[in-house]
Structure formats: C-alpha cells, structure tokens
Amino acid sequence: MSKLVTLNENRNKLMTDAHALLSAETVTAEARVSATKMLADVEVIEADITALEAIEKRQKSAQSFERSARPGSTNGGAVVDMTPEERKEKYGAALRDYARKNWQGMSQENRDLLTTSDTTGGAFVPQIFSGILIDALKFYGPIAQKVDQKVTNNSGAPMKVSLDNDTGNGLYLLGTEGSSVPAETDPALQSKILGVDTVTGGLVKVSFQELEDSSFDLDAFIRNKFGIRHARGLESIVTLGKDSAGTVLPNSSTGGLVGMSTVSGTTTSLAAGIGWDDLTTAFGALDAAYINPTTAWVMNTNTRAYLLGLKDGFGRPYFTPDPVSGKAFAQLLGYDVVLNQAMPNMGANAKPILFGDLKASYLLRTDGDPSILRLNERFADTLEVGFYLYQRVGGLTKNAGVSPIVNITQASS
C-alpha cells in the first residue's frame, strides 16, 4: 500500500471519528478536546497529501522525458542500454583511445565512458578497471578475497577498528539474594588504527608503434600485466605484511597471517617432514568457534605437492582426487585448500601450512580503486608511453584474544 493511500485513509478515519464525537446529543468538554485534536491532525495530514501529490506529479513528468541522442551514438549514447558484449567493446575502445591519444585527443563519447568528473585532461582510469583487476584476483591471488574486506574512499584517512574478548566470562552463582553484589565482568576491549600505504604495480612502457598497431589488444595487455602484479602484491601483503620486494609495510600487520598464527605443534624432526599426525594436531588446535564455512587450509603449491606424495605403509597415497569436484586435493579433512604462493616453503623452523577462519583472522583495507597514470611526455624521446598502476592498501590482524588461525611449524633439525 502506498504512503498516499495510507494518508488518505487516516484522514478519512479522523474526520469520521470527529464527526461522531461532535454530532452526539450531549457533547462533553473531553469530547470537544478530542475532536479538536483530530481536526488539527487532519490539517497536518492534508498538507502531507498535497506535498506527496506534487512530488508524484514531478516524478511522472521526469520519467516521461526522452534523452536526446549523444553525438556519434545510435541509441542515445547510454552505456546501460548496451548488451554486455557491446559495453565491453566500448570500454576497450575507450581505453585504447586513452592510451594512444591521451585525454585531449579522445572523442567526447569515449571520455564519458571512462570518467564524468575530470575536465582538465584526466590521468586516471576509474571504476571500470577495478572489475578487470578483481577478475585477475580469482586466478592469481585468491587469499586476498578470502579474508575480511573493508573498502573505503576517504583519501586514506586512518580508521579505528575495535576488538573484544569475552571468552573468559560466563555464569556465576549469586551468593545471597538481596544482599550479594555481582562482580564486575567487563569484556576485554582493544582497538587498532588501520591506515593505508600507497603501493604500485611498477611501470610498463609501450612503444608508439604498438599503440598504433590496430591488432594490438591494449586492454588485454594491461589487464594481464597489472592484474597479476596487483593480485600477487596483495597476496604478499596479506600473508607476510610485506610488499613484493620484501619491504615491511608500515600500515600492514607485521608478519601478516603467518605472523599472527599460533603454533599448533612442531614436527618431530626436519627430516620427518609433515605427516598425518601434524595435520590432525593442527585441526584439533583450532578453537571450535572458528570452524565454519570460511575456515580453510593455506599453503603454496610446493607444500601441496609434498602432501600429495605422502603414502601409507602399503604404498597407497593418503590423498586422492575429490570424487565430487574432480579436483586434486581441493579439500583436506572437509575444508578447502587455498593455494597461496606467498606462503613459506617447507624448511627448518618454517610455517608452511596455516589452518583457520580467514575472515576472522585478517582485515584487508583498500582505499579507492586501482588507478592508472599515463606518462605521456617522460619517454617521448624513445617513442614510448608509460603506464603506472597504484593503489592505497592496508591491513591488520583481528586476533582479539583467542587465535582464529594456527600453523604447523617444522623442527629446526
């Protein structure tokens, strides 16, 4: 039922009730006061009805407006009216146009496809590029999508994240009713400040000849190069708290997921490797509160290959392909195996395997979408154009008192 219909019904009811009070044979002072209030309410409701009717009239008028065609367009120029294939081709053409001609040389239609805010020779490819990068994350950096996400757009301003630990509190006997005072049992609270650092995918230079080559798929080139770099970079930040060169990031959690994880157990010796007992120990070490659909094993492909090679006393492999999905080693003890190439290899004192609730373990913050800067003049003497990817990112661990993730640590010898 619409608001306008409801208001009309309320007004009619008030009028009916007021009429009943005032038309009685004997009208009491109380009845007059009630009727007067009802009539005042009717005036307020009628004012709301008049305002809503005017708004609806304007909305109908706006919806009947037909947009004039944009120059060079055959369907009014609205990207939303295109099929997904047409929209993808339009964006690809706009990106190629941007790379070849910079902003000033682009057609107005292609400028509108890429941005609606920059009128001074824009240098950024905004939100549409973010979708391309997210697609790349699925193939090259799945760990960045498994942890908790916080997307902001406030120019990198620090934000406070609060954590609490109430696991030590429960129910307590109240000694004497009416005289005993319950003990104060506040939860343990803490907060962390989450900032961001500016990270970059580096510089990619493309020659003028390649740009002018009509067969050169520039958008695919940028997607493949920058997309993989972006995904691998986030993988290292989340896992180790470092960039791809090994530099500790000031606004990322020291040690990342590996650093925050608690030791479930240490292997008997380095030579013994990692056995079935080590895996079950890690499974049992994780608090049951963190066993849920977002719980997973994390390891790199080398560690996975080692586990796949384990055999029992009869020479039979411990792990076989999943009969349901057909994937080799997609799950372990019923929980997904997430491949993460930033994880340490097996070795002395290494922590090559993690097990825990990834969303409860780490918060990854990205401030704004990944952006591309076009360097038009810097490399002109070598007939090249540079493309530069950057984004603001930060992260923190979310251990409030009971570790949501554990590791298997190998012995030193």
What does this 3D model show about the protein?
With 413 residues, this protein is an alpha/beta fold. The protein is 37% helix and 21% strand. The chain has a six-stranded mixed β-sheet. Helix 5 packs across helix 8 (218-240).
Give the topology, please.
Blueprint: H1 3-22, H2 29-63, H3 84-101, H4 108-114, H5 127-140, H6 143-146, E1 148-152, E2 159-165, E3 188-194, E4 197-207, H7 208-212, H8 218-240, H9 256-260, E5 262-266, H10 276-285, E6 295-299, H11 301-308, E7 331-332, E8 335-339, E9 353-357, H12 358-361, E10 362-375, E11 384-397, E12 405-409
Parallel strand pairs: 1-10, 5-12, 6-8
Antiparallel strand pairs: 2-3, 4-11, 6-9, 7-8, 9-12, 10-11
